[in-house]
Q: What sequence folds into this?
């Protein structure tokens, strides 16, 4: 969808800002877009947006790591041809290379086949706007379906996003201008931070369209997003985007589960999308096979899997994204926040 088409169909809808000094612009109602589907893929509703997206999402970080750009482009297009419509990305992945390659892959008619998501690190209005313009240029599109506030991992992050002159003001203005269609947030550190983001949004009269968080076979045992955040998101009609299925392969080092079990476990949760890193054709085939062979796991099957992973999951030994700065790009680059 081009921005001019979005603006033709969007109608104004007020979003109140309860906080003193807040001056959020009015939002726009967002019409859902119909995209091609494959009989071998699972498709689900994205929260209450009205959008239908593939239950497997292609992680953006890994598609910027191939030595040859042509390899990345082939990987992305093969995923789309296989029925994957949800594309994940971020302004900072691989210094922008992930977005550049995705933008190249989405030429020649592929852009209209996907629900395109990326993320902004900026916490201020000015930094968010700068990053958004760069992302749109790299992705070669004038409208991004979903933009999420990236790495909400500190207790002060919600206050910065919702402050006067904060990133939410920029996101709302961008939505009103037709540059973005939906707004969400991500984080991987502690459920308490996610809950504070939801509470802050409620105080400001704002509802997130999506939330991205760890959902995997170890999460239930330590700082569980599945137990603490999932019920809040579902109650609000916010689409849940599952990530860290394998924790960049680190979870697999526990030797307590198989990759297909982990993908089926994620798909068995009440999530809209399981976003998984795909860096080569064998891993893409694994993800496509997971969707093709998926049957919801029974409570008994899930309980058995969780018993197997319980000891390994103790104290977040393998979930390093919760316990170390290993996955915290903004911690290493605070200038990105603005």
A:
């Amino acid at each position: 969808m081009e921005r001019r088409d979005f603006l033709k169909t969007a109608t104004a809808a007020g979003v109140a800002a309860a906080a003193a000094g807040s001056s959020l612009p009015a939002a726009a109602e967002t019409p859902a877009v119909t995209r091609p589907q494959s009989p071998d893929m699972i498709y689900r509703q994205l929260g209450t947006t009205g959008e239908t997206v593939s239950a497997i999402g292609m992680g953006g970080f890994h598609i910027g790591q191939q030595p040859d750009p042509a390899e990345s482009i082939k990987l992305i297009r093969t995923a789309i041809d296989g029925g994957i419509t949800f594309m994940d990305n971020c302004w900072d992945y691989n210094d922008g290379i992930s977005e550049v390659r995705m933008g190249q892959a989405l030429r020649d008619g592929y852009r209209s086949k996907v629900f395109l998501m990326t993320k902004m690190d900026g916490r201020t209005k000015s930094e968010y706007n700068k990053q958004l313009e760069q992302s749109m240029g790299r992705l070669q599109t004038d409208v991004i379906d979903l933009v999420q506030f990236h790495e909400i991992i500190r207790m002060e992050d919600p206050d910065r996003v919702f402050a006067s002159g904060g990133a939410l003001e920029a996101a709302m203005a961008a939505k009103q201008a037709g540059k973005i269609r939906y707004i969400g947030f991500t984080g991987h550190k502690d459920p308490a931070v996610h809950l504070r983001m939801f509470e802050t949004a409620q105080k400001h009269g704002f509802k997130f369209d999506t939330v991205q968080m760890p959902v995997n076979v170890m999460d239930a045992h330590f700082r569980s997003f599945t137990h603490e955040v999932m019920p809040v998101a579902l109650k609000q009609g916010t689409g849940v985007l599952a990530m860290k299925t394998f924790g960049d392969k680190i979870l697999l080092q526990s030797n307590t589960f198989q990759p297909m079990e982990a993908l089926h476990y994620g798909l068995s949760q009440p999530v809209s999308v399981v976003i998984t890193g795909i860096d080569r054709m064998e891993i893409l085939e694994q993800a496509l096979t997971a969707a093709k062979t998926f049957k919801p796991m029974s409570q008994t099957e899930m309980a058995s899997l969780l018993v197997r992973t319980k000891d390994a999951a103790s104290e977040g030994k393998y979930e390093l994204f919760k316990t170390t700065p290993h996955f915290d790009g903004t911690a290493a680059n605070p200038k990105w926040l603005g």
About this structure: The longest helix spans residues 125-139. Residues 6-23 have pLDDT under 50 and may be disordered. The chain is about 40% helix and 15% strand.
